[in-house]
Amino acid sequence: MSRAAAIALALALAAWVGATPAFAHERILFIGNSFTMGANSSALRYRADSVAALTEANIGGVPAIFERFADQAGFEWEASHELSGGKDLAWHLANRREAIDKPWDVVVLQQYSTLDERNPGDPATTLRDAPALARLVSDRNPDVKVYLLSTWTRADQALKPTGYWYGQPLEAMALAVRRALDAADAASDDIDGVIPVGEAWQRTISQGIADGNPYDGRDFGKVDLWSYDQYHASAEGSYLEALVVFAHVTGYDVRQFGAGEKAANELGIEPRIAEALQRVAMEQLAGARVGFD
């Protein structure tokens, strides 16, 4: 990173930290699939009793990590989730409307990892369904904040010959998802922004904290953000996801948690890695470019 870029990043972080975080009692709903559930890692069942399951029970995942962060930050958040593995936003809209249609303060929407299961990279259904879900919850509470969670590059889609993004830069899939969500955001007055989890993931790799290719062995000292299927997130990947979501939604500087942060300890994440992921989350939210510093 150049000196000028470092100064710009420091100023952006200072401005972010200076923002007033949310302290009031808030109700947040997570809508998504296994990428929010923390499937295939210790995050899946983590503190499942600390969050309200509107449908599938015994799932903690990112909502439970979010709740754990809130407790430590002194915030009053009530986290709920409506999650189902392998589903897209169209499925939630068609099959879980009654569960979703309640007065929430914040709603986080997570689309299918490739945008469209049958046509990877095609944003059409996202442009249709994300605004429709946002309209549903906004009709119930006009003051609700609706955010779209931009997910990460799947190693199986980027690094294997059968993958749709094979032969392209590693960040290509994450950026394709981000562009689609940005377009949905721009098209809807009911959507309030995009949470850049996939870009934070790429930043973690570019800074040498995480390994960028799970198929050739893991470099010593680095973590694997992917789980054993090179698709879902590992505990560290879900932890990073939750950090970015929490900081984005609440305005809290997650670097304040430090090496002793409780969720990381309970998930078995090395303290130095927890600190590094906290830093990366804040750097990404400060607005620096993905993967190139």
Automatic annotation (TrEMBL):
Keywords of this entry: Signal
Single annotated GO MF: hydrolase activity, acting on ester bonds
Keyword Signal tagged: yes
Gene3D superfamilies named among the record's database cross-references: SGNH hydrolase
Signal peptide as annotated in the record: 1-24
InterPro entries: SGNH_hydro_sf
Protein name, as recorded: PEP-CTERM sorting domain-containing protein
Organism (species): Tsuneonella litorea
